[in-house]
Every structure is written in structure tokens, then in C-alpha cells.
Q: What sequence folds into this?
């Protein structure tokens, strides 16, 4: 790919992550080759409290759980999913 290309993705937030970010979804434009982990780092720059959850947040890409190293493509939907509680 050409250097400087960007991918636009949709990011969905749930539970405490939604409370921290202040919305349930937003679009991001990231450098080509970005991973799911880059989404969290990018959002953490504007919402530092989000980084307190970085070791417990799970990612889903296009409604399937995915590792943080998953490379994102144009139009992907990434969900940041905090741990759930209950029983």
C-alpha cells in the first residue's frame, strides 16, 4: 500500500467504555496497517481513563472476537468490550 493511506472504521463502545468516551459509536480514520490495539491507543490520547482498562478490554472486529494484533481494513467495525459482571 502507499504510505499515508488511511482506513476509516466504525468503533462501538459498551458499558464503562461508553461512559468514558461519552458516546456509543464513532468513526476513526487510522493509518493503513493499524491494528485493533491502535484504536485503543488513539482513543486513549483523548480519553486517558480508557487506558486504565487496556489490559481487560476485548476487541471484536466485524462482530467476531479478535486479538489486539488484528490488522484493520476499510469499513471494519471494531467493538471495545470491557469485562462483564453478573451471574
A:
Amino acid at each position: 500500500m502507499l504510505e499515508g493511506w488511511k482506513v476509516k472504521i466504525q468503533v462501538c463502545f459498551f458499558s464503562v467504555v461508553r461512559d468514558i468516551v461519552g458516546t456509543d459509536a464513532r468513526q476513526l480514520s487510522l493509518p493503513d496497517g493499524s491494528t485493533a490495539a491502535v484504536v485503543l491507543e488513539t482513543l486513549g490520547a483523548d480519553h486517558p481513563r480508557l487506558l486504565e482498562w487496556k489490559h481487560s478490554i476485548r476487541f471484536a472486529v466485524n462482530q467476531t472476537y479478535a486479538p489486539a494484533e488484528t490488522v484493520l481494513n476499510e469499513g471494519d467495525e471494531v467493538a471495545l468490550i470491557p469485562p462483564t459482571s453478573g451471574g
Summary: The mean pLDDT is 93.
